[in-house]
Amino acid sequence: MREAFVAADVSLESIERLVLVQEDLGPVIVSRGGEPRWVAAPSMHLTLKALGSMDDALIYDVAQTISKLTASLVPFKVSVEGLFAHPTPARPRLLMSRVGAGAELIERLQKVIEAHLYGIGVEHDPRPFSPIIQVGRVRTPSRAVDLSDVMATTATLDLGESYIKNLMLLQTELGPRGPQATVYKRFPLGV
Known about the structure:
This protein is α+β, with helices and mostly antiparallel strands. The chain has four helices and nine strands; from the N terminus they run βαββαββαβαβββ. The chain has a five-stranded antiparallel beta sheet with strand order 2-6-5-4-7. Strands 3-1-8-9 form a four-stranded antiparallel beta sheet, covered by helices on one side.
């Protein structure tokens, strides 16, 4: 069984800007004793629902459900902005960007996806949803890497707009360089 999730594409404009942020931030993280692990540009996406491990039959059911759902939706724009550290800038483990304008549309879409998938037996995720794009991770072999000063300047970055016109069902497999996501199926909105 493989891990699966539902996601939306991120625009090439936003991806290019996020890669520039990775290139600028990488040497800073290294100079402070950390090791950045960047999400590769082709793998950047906006996760809408983590599905966990699934067998092929349930993956097929999820794909059928998402296909029916997306037929009634229309494409829309969102803005991508800022770079943030989780759990804190002083002890970053995850680096991510968030959806600004259009976040309420993404949040509604996520709730609809959650409800439809629950109807076919996919567990509800009790954690609050936050529309983010994972940009990378920070490994800290010996000590915490404090990025507070850097994160104070990245919170308002304009990382472009993304036109949400497709959803994707992705599957991940663990490879030698970490998890590798592949597209199981794309679902155009409104088709």
